[in-house]
Structures are given as C-alpha cells and as structure tokens.
Amino acid sequence: MTTAFPCRWVGVLAALLALAHGGCTPTQPPVRQPDPVSAHVVESRKVRNVMRSLLALVPEDPSWVEPMAEHERSVREGLRTTSLELAAQAERIEWALARRELPASQRRVFLGLADQLRERATRLSEEALQVPHAALQARFEQVIDTCHRCHDLFRGPADG
User: Fold this and answer.
1) 143 exposure class (CB count in 10 Å sphere: 0-12, 13-18, 19+)
2) What average pLDDT does the segment 125-147 reach?
3) What SS3 class is residue 46?
4) Is the dihedral of CA 134, 54, 128, 147 positive or negative?
5) Who contacts 46 (Cβ-Cβ below 8 Å, separation ≥6)?
6) Sequence-separated (6 or more) residues with CB below 8 Å from residue 146
7) Fold for domain 41-154?
8) I need a labelling partner for 83 at 20 to 30 A (CA). Which of 25, 33, 40, 53 fits?
9) Largest Cα–Cα distance of the chain, in whole Å?
10) Those residues with Cβ within 8 angstroms of residue 53's Cβ, 6 or more apart along the chain or in another chain
11) Is the pLDDT of residue 85 over 70?
12) Could you tell me the pTM of the whole model?
C-alpha cells in the first residue's frame, strides 16, 4: 500500500534535495549579443505587419494570378491600400534611423533603399487598380526585391 504525501511536503522535499545537491543558484538567461550586421537594423513591427498583409494578398509565387480572377477587384483594392500603408511606413524609416548609430556610407545606402521602397510601394498602389496582371506582378516583385536587398545588406541573407 502506498502512502500519499500531502502537497505541502512536496515543496519541502524538493528544497531539501536542492540543498543536498549544492543548493539553488539563480541563473541569468544568456544575453544575446547582436552581430555587427544586425546591430543597426531598424526594427518595425508596423512594416513587418504591412508586409505580411501584402504577402497574404499576393504570394511571391507567380501562379497567384489565376486564383485572383474570382476576387480580382477586392485583391487589387487590398494591394492599393496595403501598398499605400507600406509607402507611409517607409517614409518614417529615416526618423527611426536617426536614433541609431550607423556609418555615413551605410546610412546613405539604408536611406536609399528606404526611398526606393517608398517609391516602389507608391507606384504599386497607384497602378494596382488598372495595370494588367503581368505588370502588377512586376511591381509587386520590385517591392519584394527592395525588401530582400535591404535585409541581405543589413540583416544577413538568412534573416528574413
């Protein structure tokens, strides 16, 4: 026949075992040191969320055009709205970068890519309702290419 320990004794037993094996020593979680490339990244949850919305509308796979036919107007409206929001967020990147230390040459490249993102997202929003599918796909790919280029330069290729 087994004897059940009352719940209060479980804690006492655990404390005694810890003391018998050297006691409890508090440990700190390791502090992640940023690597030199990603140390200067301007993180933006808003930009990330807008990009997720954009990718949800138009996957990077070119075959997205066929299923879009059924909901073409709403997808195009979504692209227009989401691209406008992305352009607005890209406009704010310079302000966010002002709080970071970055060598002048890297700052120029970073801000150039932010301008390019703003311009390309604006163009996508302006043309989303009227251009043919192939042109729309090309505009979308230009926006995505700008994102990838910046991430490759300032985060490293493995970090999306």
Assistant:
1) buried
2) 90
3) helix
4) negative
5) 89
6) 113, 116, 117, 120
7) Four Helix Bundle (Hemerythrin (Met), subunit A) (1.20.120)
8) 40
9) 81
10) 78, 82, 85
11) yes
12) 0.66
